[in-house]
Amino acid sequence: MEIQILIDRSSVEVFLFGGKYTVTSRIYPRPSSICYDIFTEGAGLSIPDLRIIELR
Q1: Kind and range of the H or E element at 23?
Q2: For residue 15, what pLDDT is reported?
Q3: How far apart are CA 13 and CA 25, in angstroms?
Q4: How many domains does the chain have?
Q5: Which run of H or E residues covers position 45?
Q6: How far is CA 19 from the centre of its chain?
Q7: Distance from the Cα of residue 17 to its chain's centroid
Q8: Which single residue of 1, 13, 15, 29 could bond 33 by disulfide (Cβ 3.0 to 4.6 Å)?
């Protein structure tokens, strides 16, 4: 399964299967927040390949 997660200063967008399924949410992080957590329900999560691209 391919998952793309785009995070900027005020939103998170998640794209599954090349955009077939999407989720968008507004976020309001503190300026000092520099980390992200991923949670799953049920089965564990395995991420065999992770790329982080900083948007400017």
Answers
A1: strand 21-26
A2: 92
A3: 7
A4: 1
A5: none
A6: 13
A7: 14
A8: 29
